[in-house]
User: Fold this.
Amino acid sequence: MNELIAIFIGMALINNIILVQFLGLCPFFGVSKKLGSAVSMGMAVTFVMSIASVTTWLINHYILIPFDIEYMYIVIFILVIATLVQIIEMFIKRTNLALYNAFGIYLPLITTNCAVLGITLIILYQEYSFLGSVVAPLGGGLGFTLVLAMMSGIRERLELANAPKAMKGLPIAFIIAVLLALAFSGFGGMI
Amino acid sequence: MGKFGKEFAKGLIISNPVLVLALGLCPTLAITTSIDNALGMTLVVLVVLVGSSTIIAAIRNFVPSIMRIPIFIVIIASLVTVMDLIFQANFPDLHVSLGIFLPLVVVNCIILARAEVFASKNPILHSIADALGITVGFMLALLMISSIRQILGTGSLSVFGFDFFTLPVLGKYPIAMFILPPGAFLIIGLLMALFRWRGVMKSE
Assistant:
């Protein structure tokens, strides 16, 4: 149990998926200008990450390892994630239209989001147990949503700030990320 | 040759994939802690980008357009698997320090963007030139960021075990922040502003 809590907190805060592991930076700098869309994006990513982690864990342990084809993991994982995103999109569209509209265009974009493939690879490299592969994406998704929401709140105000011309837009967002990353490095000694 | 040169040159500065187009940020920030990592990453991107551009340009007339993205991804993923195995066998240290960012080249936007925007519409030779130009632009950005981070963060410059110099004060008291994540954001943000500043000056 302690190990699972350590994985959850580690993924959410100490090794924050955006600010420390540098995964999923495109939505961090691209999408995050409105709080609402940042939270939808965070939820969509958490959802896909959870399903993808469990699926790839099962595939790795019951197909790749028994048949001795672990070296194919890159091809298999990316295909599984792309297929899963398609299936999830169709399923949500049929069953829950409100949720589908909330996720909006973010679902298809998630296929090429490195956070999803990244977390399945972290689980593979760290050799987490099955329960670990359930908990890790939940922690990672929480950290992802948290940082995305914080950044969007800051950027909404930043639009009005009088930054030098060359710093407007992305460069100043990077400077903000420096401050957030410094703050998050304070979690370093927690566990 | 003129067209080849033009496609090659445009990736270097004007549309530098990292510092101007802001593509492929995740690996750029994560692996620029040392020049060794930057060179290793460049090698992976070089082989994967040139290989995938060549293959995609060669089959561009046979690929049905609704199936093109899955086909591109499988081609790219196969090339990345090849590089992953080569690195595991020949450069085990680099393989460990690149970590998950070696397999993550699959979802690097630079590579899929070149496949989608350029290689799927242009002949083989131009696609190779485009791929080479983008790779050199990527390498320039990585080398700039990683050398600044390594010099400030460790106080010395060494590449694959060869020590070039050690700074007098920084060598003893390095600014460790530049090796840590905040330093990555800081350096790339400032470099981006520098590239834009040149553009702003020109337009005025």
Notes: The beta strands of chain B are 156-159, 162-166.
